[in-house]
């Protein structure tokens, strides 16, 4: 599967989705630290130059989904964390919440894609060993929330 738009019959551009996830992690970070409303954060990011090459619809769905379901996502992640979610590195916390949202509310996205993307984003923005932590937590969450798919 390549990043070319015409290579997928479902109209999904995986490269644009990857960019949407990366920007969404940065937007979650800005949302948590800046104290602005999610709508304001989305508007701020929407006007940035490189958002033109991201899947904007997916970007917004991720952010609104994390905002709406944060308590549920945090509760789902809690058993697999070694500390309170608020004490997890802010970038990694954003990645975990984003991926948890995809696992729970975007069954159209294969769990392996969710995990791989989360690891890649964490390698790019997180702490040095952050991707290992994120992968371990999400692997357990995937088995809990997508047992039939993850167990296959």
List keywords for this structure.
single chain; 152 residues; mainly alpha; N-utilizing Substance Protein B Homolog, Chain A; 0% strand; globular
Please, could you describe this protein's structure?
It is a single chain. This protein is an all-alpha fold and 152 residues long. The chain has a single domain, classed as Orthogonal Bundle (N-utilizing Substance Protein B Homolog, Chain A). It is 68% helix and 0% strand. It has 7 helices and no strands. The N terminus is likely disordered.
Give the biggest sheet.
none
Query: What is the overall number of helices?
Result: 7
Gyration radius, to the nearest Å? 15 Å
DSSP helix fraction:
55-70%
Distance between the ends: 21 Å
SSE sequence, one letter per element: HHHHHHH
**CATH architecture descriptor:** Orthogonal Bundle
Structural class designation: mainly alpha
Q: Give the DSSP E fraction (strand runs of 2 or more residues).
A: under 5%
Ranges where pLDDT stays below 50 over 5 or more residues in a row are 1-7
For the record, what is the CATH homologous superfamily label? NusB-like
User: How many β-strand runs?
Assistant: 0
Assign the CATH class.
Mainly Alpha
CATH level 3 topology: N-utilizing Substance Protein B Homolog, Chain A
The number of domains is 1
Give the overall pLDDT as a whole number. 89
Sum up the overall morphology in one term: globular
């Amino acid at each position: 599967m390549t990043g070319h738009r015409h290579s997928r019959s479902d109209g999904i551009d995986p490269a644009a989705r990857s960019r949407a996830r990366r920007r969404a992690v940065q937007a979650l970070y800005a949302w948590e630290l800046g104290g602005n409303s999610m709508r304001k954060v989305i508007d701020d990011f929407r006007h940035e130059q490189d958002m033109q090459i991201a899947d904007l619809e997916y970007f917004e769905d991720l952010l609104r989904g994390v905002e709406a379901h944060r308590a549920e996502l945090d509760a789902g992640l809690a058993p697999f964390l070694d500390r309170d979610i608020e004490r997890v590195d802010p970038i990694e916390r954003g990645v975990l919440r984003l991926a948890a949202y995809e696992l729970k509310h975007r069954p159209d996205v294969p769990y392996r894609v969710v995990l791989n993307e989360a690891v890649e984003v964490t390698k790019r923005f997180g702490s040095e060993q952050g991707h290992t932590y994120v992968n371990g937590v999400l692997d357990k969450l995937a088995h809990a929330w997508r047992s039939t798919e993850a167990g296959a």
